């Protein structure tokens, strides 16, 4: 299946960063893209190579050996690789920065916030995850949408919750009326590995059966009331004739 995100303008189709909500996706894809050239990726992640002379002072460019010049050039290759993954708005945020690492660090702060802000957001989202429950009157499908927003936000901050933990949270979030289905799912052999969307689909199917059962019960009650009313009316008519 093709990615829904656009690619940048390069022969190697760098992933394109266009907005905050695709930053986490972009970052992961860009690392994969750069990993074809480990020394370029190293410059992005750790910063520029520093070359010192015999006195321990940084060398000028014209003092570099041929091998050092090759490594020195990796920064420009890294900058170009990142630039190929920006739209104009993202380009304008970091174009004045000299190193690829500075560019990536600046983008991370812009899209994810400072470390303290990121920690606060993560704590808030984890609290929401831990307290997730179906709201009164909320359907399974509605709760799934709300739950997915939380999961997506956590992943954008780099928090990947294990699949088994996600699935158990979903099962613990539904009311007691789902107990039979929850027990069945908990005992299934693949409950720790199946996607939580499958768990929601199973719960939604059970929810439909519950609703159908309630409708049958209502119809049966209405029919019983009609029969009682008809019987009462017939009895009254016989009594009046006597």
Automatic annotation (TrEMBL):
PANTHER family: DUF4219 DOMAIN-CONTAINING PROTEIN-RELATED (PTHR34676), TRANSMEMBRANE PROTEIN (PTHR34676:SF8). It comes from Heracleum sosnowskyi. This is Uncharacterized protein. It comes from the Eukaryota.
């Amino acid at each position: 299946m093709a990615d829904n995100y656009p690619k940048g303008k390069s022969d190697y189709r760098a992933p394109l960063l266009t907005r905050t909500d695709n930053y986490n996706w972009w970052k992961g894809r860009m690392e994969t893209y750069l990993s074809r050239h480990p020394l370029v990726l190293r410059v992005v992640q750790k910063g520029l190579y520093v070359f010192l002379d015999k006195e321990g002072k940084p060398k000028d460019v014209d003092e570099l050996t041929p091998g050092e010049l090759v490594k020195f050039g990796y920064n420009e290759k890294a900058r170009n690789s990142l630039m190929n993954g920006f739209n104009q708005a993202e380009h304008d945020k970091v174009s004045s920065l000299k190193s690829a690492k500075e560019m990536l660090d600046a983008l991370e702060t812009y899209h994810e916030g400072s470390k303290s802000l990121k920690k606060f957001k993560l704590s808030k989202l984890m609290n929401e995850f831990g307290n997730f429950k179906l709201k009164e009157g909320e359907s399974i499908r509605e709760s799934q949408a709300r739950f997915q927003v939380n999961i997506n936000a956590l992943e954008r901050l780099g928090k990947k919750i294990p699949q088994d933990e996600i699935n158990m949270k979903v099962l613990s979030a539904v009311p007691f009326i789902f107990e039979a289905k929850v027990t069945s799912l908990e005992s299934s052999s693949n409950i720790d590995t199946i996607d939580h969307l499958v768990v929601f689909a199973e719960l939604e199917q059970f929810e439909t059966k519950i609703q159908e059962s309630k409708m049958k019960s209502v119809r049966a009650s209405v029919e019983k009331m009609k029969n009682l009313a008809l019987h009462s009316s017939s009895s009254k008519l016989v009594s009046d004739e006597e």
